[in-house]
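Now for one record:
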Amino acid sequence: MSFAPVKNLSDKSVQSVRFLFSHGALFNLSAGILLITASLNASVARLIGLKVVTDLWAAQFVGLTVLVFGWIYWTIGRNPVKNRDMIQFGLIGKSLTVLVIGGHFLLGNLTWQAPALASFDAMYTVLFWRALSRLKHG
């Protein structure tokens, strides 16, 4: 999906989108590091409500994927007008995160900590959608 060039977008709007994605990047980078650390340290895993990890590769792959999304958000934040087409990947990633974590919580596979963290992903989903709409329409 590609949008026509943005016209008449105020500096304030661009700055708010830059802030949003820079903040989102820091959130994801922190979460990715936390997940990788939890895969290697049972105390950290318990702290965030995860069972002790037996498949290190899977836990570390998830952590690395979260880090990659953090990099995507950082890239968007550096120049949201130029990189606005990348926002759709953020929307997909955040939406899937909320669905998977919410589903596993409802099935009883997760304690309250993971959905609490995923509530931030739900918030970012709404904010990313609004940012994309703002950049699309100027």
Notes: The two ends are 17 Å apart (CA to CA). The chain has a mean pLDDT of 89. The CA atoms of residues 19 and 77 lie 7 Å apart.
